[in-house]
Amino acid sequence: MTDTTRDPSHSPASTGAPAPHVLVLIAIATVAPVSMNVYLPSLPSMVETFESTASQVQLTISFFVAGLALFQLVVGPLSDKYGRRPIVVLGMGIYTVGSLLCLMAVDIETLIMARVVQALGCCTGLSLGRAIIRDVYDREHAASMIGYVTMGMTLGPLAGPLIGGFLQESVGWIGGFYVMAVLGAAVLMTTALYLPETNLHQHQGEGFRGILRGYRDVMSKPVFWGYASTAMLTSAVYFCFLGAFPYIASQYYDLEPLHVGFYVVFIASGYIIGNGLTGRLAARLGVMRMIILGALLNTLSIVLAALLIYLVGKSPLDLFLPMFILGIGSGMLLPSALSGAVSALPERVGAASGLAASMQFGAGAIFNAISAWLVSKEMWDGSPWPLIWEMLILSILAGGAIVFAGHAESRNQQEFDVR
């Protein structure tokens, strides 16, 4: 008999679809965050290497995130029609090609376009990982599984900046893109060999109109908008920080690339803790309680950062210690909010997952660029204050989305009781 006690993918709450091993789900979900984090310590030096500006180099992140947002609108419905497995395998192949194009880039424009190709490929794992989980599990256990998978996939971004900082000091900016190419090839082989098909409700007869119909069905559900907006605004807080902190760290706190990597690890470890709490508690407490607890931690952490920066002075811990707490809150909130969003219409999980992810990364691309612009030397003195205000406003808006999601959930329950 096979011992499955150590694999949380084996659950009594299964829907009957074959469950992939949790490590396969972690692998496909890790590619996109690693691609955003591993070369962050190299951003300031890339300005000199490509003879460009900080704003232009930042576009390698913004266009990548925008690509994630755009392409996930397509891959979700395509996976509803053709299945999850072929779309993920094809995507990992495209990502690997994009990584090789990045290695051959000789100017910033070529690198930006190659990053878009990477986004086209790796968006499949990011979006469809959640859809695969929802194929296999009910809503509450899906939140737990998303928490476990997110906790595992965070190990990549956790090590990424450390590796990137070391590579920047040893071989320069290109080292991070070698990591991406190797990762892409490894995940391509893994999915081709070990990822089963989990979509048992493929809409084979649907064409483009069917894809639009799927989005129409999902968008008609207020509960989807509540949960997806909560995830979108919470993710935007993180992308604000991602866009600003490399420049705040180097210009305001005068940190070396390797030290920047250590601080990223510190923050990401908070996110892992939050994911672990979600994995253990979501099935017991429910999705909404986990969201509320995470949102409270997020808002309090931003307020704490403002107080420390104002009262204590110019120490990196004034910003990075509260961001560790923000990581815990986000790790609790995001898996639960995404589980609620993709559960809005079980027969359209792919479309719901794609649209929710597109909202996340669309907002992320916008606020990532805005925050980098606000803390650039052209606009500001490099201090954290524009970042703090931006994150606080988004956190408050996320609270409003949570209230909306709660009301929509109550209306759904009332309609169900009437029936």
Notes on the protein architecture:
The protein is mainly α. It has a single domain, classed as MFS general substrate transporter like domains (Growth Hormone, Chain: A, Up-down Bundle). The chain contains 15 helices and no strands. The protein has helices spanning 22-37, 43-49, 54-82, 84-103, 108-136, 139-153, 155-170, 174-194, 208-219, 222-252, 257-285, 287-311, 316-342, 349-374, 385-418. Helix 1 (22-37) crosses helix 6. The protein is globular, with a radius of gyration of 20 Å. The N and C termini lie far apart (44 Å).
CATH superfamily annotation: MFS general substrate transporter like domains
Largest sheet: none
Helix/strand class: mainly alpha
**Second-tier CATH architecture:** Up-down Bundle
Q: Count every beta strand, where a strand is a DSSP E run of 2 or more residues.
A: 0
Percentage of residues in strands: under 5%
Tertiary shape: globular
What fold name stands as the CATH topology? Growth Hormone, Chain: A
Write down the secondary-structure element order.
HHHHHHHHHHHHHHH
Q: N-to-C terminal Cα separation, in Å?
A: 44 Å
Q: What is the top-level CATH class?
A: Mainly Alpha
- Summed up, the helix count is 15
Q: Helical proportion? A: over 70%
Number of domains: 1
Radius of gyration: 20 Å
Overall mean pLDDT: 83
